[in-house]
Design a protein that fits this description.
By secondary structure, this protein is mainly α. It contains three helices and no strands. Helix 2 packs antiparallel against helix 3 (about 50-70). The longest helix has 23 residues, at about 50-70.
Length: about 70
């Protein structure tokens, strides 16, 4: 196996692992983490933001799946 094929395989694995089935959830988590970082840099204690974002994103993802299954 050459180096380029190994790097491509490595990148595909991490993309599938992080993004998985729903790119919207991955993007939402990334945005929540960025917002948390920005708020903490501004002096706000924002430990709660990722937890709320994950719960909200999970609910939205489940609603989207249920809606698609009912069609």
């Amino acid at each position: 196996m050459n180096v380029l094929a190994a790097l491509r395989s490595f990148a595909r694995f991490w993309y599938d692992f992080i993004v998985g089935d729903d790119w919207r959830v991955a993007l939402g988590v990334a945005l929540a983490l960025a917002a948390t970082w920005g708020l903490t840099r501004g002096g706000v204690n924002a430990w709660w933001l990722p937890a709320i974002a994950v719960v909200a994103l999970l609910g939205l993802s489940l609603a989207r799946v249920v809606k698609a299954a009912r069609r």
